[in-house]
Design a protein that fits this description.
By secondary structure, the protein is of the alpha+beta class. It folds into two domains: about 30-70 and about 185-270, YycH protein, domain 3-like (Lipocalin); about 70-180, YycH protein, domain 2 (TATA-Binding Protein, 2-Layer Sandwich), CATH 3.30.310. About 25% of the residues lie in helices and about 35% in strands. Strands 1, 9, 10, 11, 12, 13 and 14 form a seven-stranded antiparallel beta sheet that branches. Strands 2, 3, 4, 5, 6, 7 and 8 form a seven-stranded antiparallel beta sheet that branches. The longest helix has 28 residues, at about 5-30. Keywords: Membrane, Transmembrane, Transmembrane helix.
Length: about 290
């Protein structure tokens, strides 16, 4: 074995992780003033006075750890096991793209129903998808004809695109193809950390001018987001993902659930209705988190 190379990998990883945690600490200190200001001003009332539509908050204090995934090429290694499809893995071995030989028929209902979810879950956990038992439904985007599943890590979905299954539908509401990314086996790193609440996350966005007047704020979802990407491993931190509808646009904003800082990257698109629960069931209270 090349012990020199292994020693160097450990040293580099240690230095990067220390830098990462120091950055998180500095961000938390920089954002302490936000929590102090929130105690003095009723930001919810202020937002409502600006005709901002808010969701029902859980306002629950959670503790969630960071998680780590080692670099892998498991999709490439296992793709030949898949049946009833034609697929290919990209050059980096991180993305699998598949075209199904037998489309999966869903209901004729315009929205996604509970029976649809059951049918999709059966498909996801079949021999037509790798590691499907590790993924759960996240949302349905009718305008794009996409159904998105996320890999679950420590009871929380990874929803940044690095561990997702995106199912594509045709005009007859049949699954005809899908794309998959996979983080690989995930391990907990360190102790669980106290998180800001979903309500705090929306207040932070408002204070940072991310929520305009007359906007519609969807219920925040606790997810994991890749914050460190090295050759040998990736580190994921908990974030609150918040969908904000303003006029004809949708913005997806993310707030670090530990430090309370707004992530610089945000996604926007033309307005499109998304569905995060089946049409014939009640919304869930959110993702469970391991204490």
């Amino acid at each position: 074995m090349d012990f020199k190379r292994i020693e160097m990998i450990f040293i580099v990883t240690f230095l990067f992780l220390n830098g990462f945690f120091l950055y998180q600490l500095s961000q938390k200190n920089q954002n302490n003033f936000i929590g102090n200001q929130s105690g003095k001003v009723d930001l919810v009332t202020e937002m409502e006075n600006q005709d901002i539509t808010l969701p029902a908050f859980d306002d629950e204090e959670l503790k969630v750890p960071y998680v780590q995934a080692e670099a892998n090429d498991l999709l490439d290694q296992n793709k030949d096991q898949l049946t009833k499809q034609t697929g290919v893995v990209d050059e980096e071995g991180m993305l699998y793209v598949s075209i199904l030989s037998e489309p999966v028929k869903l209901s004729e209902d315009e929205k996604l129903t509970t029976s649809d979810i059951q049918r999709i879950n059966t498909f996801i956990k079949s021999k037509q998808v790798l590691f499907g038992e590790e993924y759960e439904f996240i949302r349905y985007v009718p305008n794009k004809k996409q159904i998105i599943y996320g890999q679950i890590a420590n009871h929380v979905p990874i929803a940044d695109g690095t561990a997702n299954i995106t199912l594509h539908l045709n005009g007859s509401k049949e699954i005809i193809s899908y794309e998959q990314t996979y983080a690989g086996p995930v391990t907990v790193q360190g102790d669980s950390r106290q998180l800001i609440t979903d309500k705090n996350a929306v207040e932070v966005l408002y204070q940072n001018n991310k929520i305009p007047a007359d906007a519609d704020v969807r219920k925040p979802i606790l997810t994991y987001y890749r914050t460190l990407n090295l050759n040998e491993l990736s580190m994921y931190a908990p974030v609150w993902t918040v969908e904000i509808i303003s006029g004809s646009n949708i913005h997806i904003e993310q707030v670090d659930a530990v430090s309370g800082s707004v992530l610089q990257e945000s996604m926007s698109d033309d307005k499109e209705e998304t569905q995060d629960v089946p049409a014939d069931s009640s919304p869930s209270s959110g993702s469970e988190s391991q204490q």
